[in-house]
Each structure stands twice: as structure tokens, then as C-alpha cells.
Design brief:
methyltransferase, methyltransferase activity, single chain, alpha/beta, binds S-adenosylmethionine, SAM-dependent_MTases_sf, transferase, about 210 residues, globular, Rossmann fold
Length: about 210
């Protein structure tokens, strides 16, 4: 007997077959809210690498990409950042607002592939953790261009994705689709430059920082 595929795989496959790189995220959060599926990336706590790295915001503006249920956004808000957090899945945004009713975070439904124009060069800190890797590679250049565009002069972007060099790339079945070093470095475009690039979690994830 074979084990059935988890709901995220089944939904992702159907969504991608229909040509949508993102529809399955809301379907998964909705199924999870009904107790019919698990969202594999939810931890109920902020990303530990981000928690170890973050510095006080002192009122500066931060943008959290793919904010899911809000844990990373709340971490930044608790460290004094004025946080906007967005996700393409309305159910995730609603859930984050419901989890943190007193929050100062501005939770927004938005698509990294079609972001609001007034986010251009608007954020002192941009946090991208394992979201772009969850979209098929065809969408990566557009997603990375949007990401780079959010960063204000003098700001910092942090980008963390699964490191292709730590995977068996030949037999890998996404999502996610891991990043090569060159792809991580490609965030350095349109006036953005790489500051640091290392691996964390025993070499399995890149942790890269950029500035403009
Ligand atoms: C793999 S999860 C990672 C969530 C969170 N960043 C973390 O570290 O746990 C990817 C998240 O990005 C969201 N997402 C995927 N594509 C997106 C897009 N094009 N624009 C905005 N959010 C997106 C999904 O709904 C999901 O919440």
C-alpha cells in the first residue's frame, strides 16, 4: 500500500496544472482552517534565524513577504519595526489578523508578482524567507525583481531559501524548488548589492543580505 500524498502536494499539483503558481496556497490554508489539511511550514513561532539576526527597528519600515500566519511580522513589530506584511492567500491574512487582534502590523493581501506601486523603494527592511522558492522557477525572475524593488536606499533585505547545493537536485520534486547561489545573488539588481551570503541550518539554507 502507498501513502497518500499530503494535501499541499495534491493542491499544488492541480493549481500548477491549471497554470496558477499561487492558487493552491489559499486552498491549503482554507482546508487547514477546516481541520482537513496541515500547512507544513507553520511553526507557531518566528523563524529562529530571523530571531537571532534581527536588530531594533526604531520605527523604520519593514516589509514581510509571504507572511503566512504572522509570526515573523509580529517578531519584527515587537523589535520596534513599523511592519507591513503581505500574503497572496486571503485566508492566511485573515488568520494572522485573528491571531494577533492587538497587532500594529498592517496585514495586506497582495501578490509579489503584482505588488502595489507605492511599495517601490519604500522599505528599510525587506524579509523574504522561503516564499519565492515555492513558486515555479519560471516566475522567479519577476518575483526577484519585485523583491529588489521594495528596498529603500540604505535599507537591508534578507533572503533565505533552500540551498540547491544541499539537495539531490536531479531527483528533486518541487515545490519548493531550491535556489542556486547565482539565483540568490541575482537579487542584487537595479542598484541593490549583495552584502553577505552564508548558509545556515547545516548548509541547507542560504541566508543572504543586500542593501541599496
Ligand atoms: C512556504 S510558505 C512560507 C511562509 C513564511 N514566509 C515562512 O517562512 O514560514 C510561502 C508563503 O508565501 C505565500 N505566497 C506564495 N506566493 C506568493 C506571492 N506571489 N505573493 C505573496 N505571497 C505568496 C504563501 O501563501 C505562503 O503563505
Amino acid at each position: 500500500m502507498t501513502t497518500p500524498d499530503p494535501a499541499d502536494r495534491v493542491l499544488a499539483r492541480a493549481s500548477l496544472a491549471e497554470g496558477s503558481p499561487t492558487a493552491w496556497f489559499d486552498q491549503l490554508y482554507t482546508a487547514a482552517a477546516r481541520g482537513e489539511a496541515e500547512v507544513p511550514w507553520t511553526r507557531g513561532a518566528p523563524n529562529s534565524d530571523l530571531a537571532a539576526w534581527i536588530t531594533p527597528g526604531e520605527g523604520r519600515r519593514a516589509l514581510v513577504v509571504g507572511s503566512a500566519l504572522g509570526d515573523d511580522a509580529e517578531l519584527l513589530a515587537s523589535r520596534g519595526w513599523a511592519v507591513t506584511a503581505f500574503d497572496v492567500a486571503p485566508t492566511a491574512v485573515e488568520a494572522a489578523r485573528a491571531r494577533f487582534p492587538e497587532s500594529t502590523v498592517d496585514y495586506v493581501v497582495a501578490d509579489l508578482l503584482h505588488p502595489p506601486a507605492d511599495w517601490h523603494h519604500a522599505f528599510d527592511l525587506v524579509v523574504e524567507i522561503i516564499n519565492i522558492q515555492a513558486m515555479p522557477r519560471d516566475f522567479r525572475p519577476a518575483a526577484i525583481a519585485s523583491l529588489a524593488g521594495f528596498l529603500a536606499p540604505g535599507g537591508t533585505a534578507v533572503v533565505s531559501e533552500v540551498a540547491e547545493e544541499s539537495t539531490d537536485a536531479e531527483h528533486w520534486e518541487g515545490p519548493p524548488w531550491p535556489f542556486s547561489r547565482a539565483e540568490i545573488e541575482s537579487v542584487a539588481q537595479d542598484g541593490v548589492r549583495l552584502v553577505s551570503l552564508e548558509t545556515v541550518r547545516e548548509g541547507t539554507r542560504y541566508w543572504a543580505t543586500f542593501t541599496r
